[in-house]
Specification:
The structure holds 2 protein chains of 2 kinds.
Chain A (H helix, E strand, L loop, with lengths): L3 E10 L2 E11 L4 E5 L6 H9 L6 E6 L2 E2 L5 H6 L2 E4 L11 H12 L14 H14 L14 H14 L4 E5 L7 H14 L4 E5 L3 H7 L2 E6 L2 E6 L1 H6 L1 H13 L1
Parallel strand pairs in A: 3-8, 3-9, 6-7, 7-8
Antiparallel strand pairs in A: 1-2, 1-4, 4-5, 9-10
Helix pairs in contact in A: 3-4, 3-5, 4-5
Chain B lengths: L1 H39 L3 H23 L10 H16 L5 H23 L5 H19 L10 E2 L15 H24 L1 H11 L1 H6 L4 H27 L1 E2 L6 H14 L5 H20 L3 H15 L3 H13 L1
Antiparallel strand pairs in B: 1-2
Helix pairs in contact in B: 1-2, 1-6, 1-11, 2-6, 2-9, 2-10, 2-11, 3-4, 3-9, 4-9, 6-7, 7-9, 10-11, 10-13, 11-12
The chains are: A alpha/beta, B mainly alpha.
GO cellular component, one term (chain A): plasma membrane
Keywords (chain A): ATP-binding, Hydrolase, Nucleotide-binding, Transport
InterPro entries (chain A): AAA+_ATPase (IPR003593), ABC_AA/LPS_Transport (IPR051120), ABC_transporter-like_ATP-bd (IPR003439), BCA_ABC_TP_C (IPR032823), P-loop_NTPase (IPR027417)
Chain lengths: 249, 328
């Protein structure tokens, strides 16, 4: 059974079909990449999968359970976490607090009014472990707003990991990250492979073809090709619709 | 890198305890006030002091949702009214015990906050402000038309509340200290709440609602809980005010009063608790002194407020931090 299944998903903004009859199957442990030119509707697709946006029609199931109309927080508690293309953090909180709050969302009640959360060793321990995984443990006490862009992207990933997900929706985790930092990030994602089911939206083609088990190509809201990276790369429709465009650009 | 990390961890707890220090200094000053009043031989001042303490409680309770939860309630005077009328109504039935009156005030406030909060929280920003104002006005007009308790004219109380059957609060000085005790207790409570797991969720929702939903927190239930807590605590101030004035009237819950509470919180510095207490002191002292000098005191108070917001957006708390910082 597929872990995440999308069937005939449609979403329109007025006359514009942003998601046009999209169907997807992501198997457990698989890293499925979605590529496509700007404006292809990738982020809108993630928004529907994560529950931020309601599709007009179609069905989304997680482990066979219909989640199409489920609100975002409930999906997260079922193990579906996402990272954002535009970093979404709590700027006045420290790095550790950002992650500890994500741990808190999964562990125990948040209707506790008296014990100081900052001294909760259960929360802090788990948060530190996640920060270590994201390579941010030496920045734990820094205010999140003071981090560099690359560190923000890593914090974004750490927060998603801290919710203990089974399925990770990664919306351009490498956006704006370059050079060695990008290589390190790709290595981190590669190390995570198998532990999570991942749906990766990414512009960085090197990263996509290095990481993905399968690649789907989204153009004007439609999936025009889907398959193993090599197959997709040599697909003539893809070359004209997308990769060719990149090369000539 | 490590240096920054160290100052980061070291900086925040000390900033937190700095707020407690400010509060402790304020409490010490409050405690020293009655002897000064006796020395000045002006007993009326002690009643002004009690009024300031009551508003400090209300402003602090409002700060809990305004400063920490980014919920700007423009109807919080309603809870002052519930507190005041709990005293009036219960004492007219011969129940004078202040603990029971506070309990009743909190129960009514919790119910009102639960219902109006559940509706108001469907909106955000300016709409939230407007809808809380509308509910506040509904409460105001309800008590205006409550003729059994004087309606518009208000209702004079026959006596102060009692404490466990004893007439301790009859003395203005004892009543002042009892109010100070309430303020300190409620400050401790609010301080615990904002640092707790719940407080973190509330502050997180202020910081970034989308992020909080994306890690699994549905905002509504946490914001509504905070709204109810804030309403309940504000009503305690109403119980004190009724006793202070020995009189209740719908004027306690007019929308001007709600605005004044917001001014106190903003003046003191939002999201600090101790700032709200300082803001209440500053606003009411200015009202007393400017009011004694000129009848156009609101004009001067307005100018002061504009200058504060322009030059110290973080209120008195921000100003104190700036002065401390420049001295180093």
């Amino acid at each position: 059974m597929s872990r995440l299944q999308v069937t005939n998903l449609c979403k329109s903004f007025g006359a514009l079909k942003v998601t046009d009859d999209v169907s997807l199957d992501v198997a457990p442990g698989e890293l499925h990449a979605i590529i496509g030119p700007n404006g292809a509707g990738k982020t809108t697709l993630v928004a529907q999968l994560s529950g931020e946006m309601r599709p007009d029609s179609g069905r989304i199931t997680l482990d066979g359970r219909d989640i199409t109309r489920m609100p975002m927080p409930q999906r997260v508690r079922m193990g579906l976490a996402r990272s954002f293309q535009i970093t979404q953090i709590l700027p006045a909180f420290t790095v550790l607090e950002n992650v500890a709050l994500a741990v808190q969302a999964r562990r125990g009640s948040s209707f506790r009014f008296f014990a100081p959360a900052a001294e909760d060793t259960g929360l802090n321990g788990a948060a530190m472990a996640t920060l270590r995984e994201a390579g941010l443990d030496d920045r734990a006490g820094v205010r999140a707003s003071a981090l560099s862009h690359g560190e923000h992207r890593r914090l974004e990933l750490a927060i998603a990991l801290a919710t203990e997900p089974q399925v990770l929706l990664l919306d351009e985790p490498l956006a704006g990250v370059g050079g060695e930092e990008a290589d390190a990030f790709v290595a981190r994602l590669a190390a995570m492979k198998g532990r999570f089911t991942m749906l990766l939206i990414e512009h960085d083609m090197d990263a996509v073809f290095a990481l993905a088990d399968r690649v789907s190509v989204l153009v004007y809201g439609q999936i025009v090709a889907s398959g193993p990276p090599d197959e997709v790369r040599s697909d003539p429709a893809v070359r004209t619709a997308y990769l060719g465009e990149e090369e000539s650009a | 890198m490590t240096d920054a990390a160290l100052t980061g961890t070291a900086g925040r707890p000390s900033a937190m305890s700095a707020r407690v220090q400010v509060a402790l200094v304020l409490f010490a000053l409050f405690a020293l006030f009655p002897p000064v009043v006796i020395a000045l031989d002006d007993p009326f001042l002690i009643l002004i002091g009690t009024r300031i303490l009551a508003y400090a409680i209300a402003a602090m309770a409002l700060d809990l949702i305004l400063g920490f939860g980014a919920m700007v309630s423009f109807g919080h005077a309603a809870y002052l009214g519930f507190g005041a009328y709990a005293v009036a109504v219960l004492s007219s039935f011969g129940i004078h015990d202040i603990a029971l009156q506070i309990l009743a005030a909190m129960a009514v406030s919790a119910l009102f906050a639960l219902v109006t909060g559940a509706i108001s929280l469907r909106t955000r920003g300016v709409y939230f402000i407007m809808i809380t104002l509308a509910f506040g006005q509904m409460a105001f007009f309800f008590f205006t038309s409550l003729s059994a308790y004087g309606g518009d004219d208000g209702y004079a109380l026959s006596q102060r509340s009692t404490l466990f059957g004893m007439d301790l609060l009859r003395s203005n000085t004892v009543f002042y200290y009892a109010t100070l005790g309430l303020l300190m207790g409620l400050f401790a409570l609010c301080h615990l709440i904002v640092r707790s797991r719940f407080g973190r969720v509330l502050t997180g929702l202020r910081e970034n609602r989308t992020r909080m939903q994306a890690i699994g927190f549905p905002p509504f239930r946490y914001q509504l809980t905070a709204f109810v807590i804030s309403g309940c605590l504000t009503s305690v101030a109403g119980v004190v005010l009724a006793n202070q004035a020995q009189f209740v009237s719908p004027a306690f819950m007019s929308w001007h009063r709600s605005g004044e509470l917001i001014v106190m919180v903003v003046l003191g510095g939002i999201g600090t608790l101790s700032g709200a207490i300082g803001g209440a002191v500053a606003a009411l002292l200015l009202e007393e002194f400017l009011g004694a000098v000129t009848e156009h005191w609101r004009l001067y108070f307005g100018i002061f407020l504009v200058l504060m917001v322009l030059f110290s957006p973080r209120g008195i708390t921000g100003l104190v931090q700036q002065i401390k910082g420049s001295r180093r």
